[in-house]
Amino acid sequence: MLSPQSLSEDDRRRVAAWAAECAERVLPLFDSEAPNDDRPRDAIARARGFAAGQLTAADEIRKRFIAGRAAKSATSPAGAAAARAAAQAAGVAHMGAHALGAAAYAARAVKLSKSDPDAVNEELEWQIASMTPGVAAALRSLPAVGAQSAGPLGPGLLSSGDLGEHIGLLQARLQGLPR
Q1: Nearest-CA neighbor of 90 among 133, 140, 152, 141?
Q2: Within 10 A of 4 (CB to CB), how many other CB atoms are there?
Q3: Contact 138, 19 (CB under 8 A)
């Protein structure tokens, strides 16, 4: 039985495009620090290719960690977060819940790169506004962050600290709840 965090292949293709958009918004933070490292840009292109049906989940599962390793090329925490956002977008081919990871890392990159305290909220608002109804429905079907014992949204990196907070805020907004 598939994990509820997996999503159907059609839903993963839908949310992969949105995750790629989230990651691409912060990609300049990484590119300015490591202009010769194209791993995050390639991960975003692969997420888009998967979304368009040009790549298979099996191919992408084997490549999903490449962009995450690029975080070591960044010279700032914001640049590293941008690389991790791209890696999470590429991971959507494997498990749909990684789309929320891409959004959370993008929000972290914004938080770390701007002194404006409203910047994260503005980024999260953009993320919500840029969802198609299909993307919102797919993401709404995911379990709450931290509610399961395994998977990207289970206990661990995406459910803790600011990443967990960002995902929790997105999920609350998707459910129409204040948070």
Answers
A1: 152
A2: 15
A3: no
DSSP sequence for 13-55: HHHHHHHHHHHHHHHHHHHTT-TT--HHHHHHHHHHHHHTTSS
Mean pLDDT within 165-178: 89
Closest alpha carbon to 11 in 137, 98, 171, 173: 137
Q: Which residue has the tokens 């300049």?
A: 28
Structure tokens at 171: 């999920």
Q: List phi, psi (to 5°) of 145.
A: -60, 130
Q: Is the pLDDT of residue 1 over 60?
A: no
Cα dihedral 119/86/146/4 (nearest 10)? 130
For 55-62, the CB contacts below 8 A with 24+ separation are 55/93, 56/93, 57/9, 57/12, 57/93, 57/94, 59/93, 60/90, 60/93, 60/94, 61/93, 61/94
What are the tens digits of pLDDT across the range 49-99?
A: 999 999 877 777 666 667 667 888 899 999 999 999 999 999 999 899 999
What phi and psi values does residue 170 have, to the nearest 5 degrees?
-60, -45
Residue type at 129 in one-letter notation: A
Q: Where are the domains of the chain?
A: 9-174
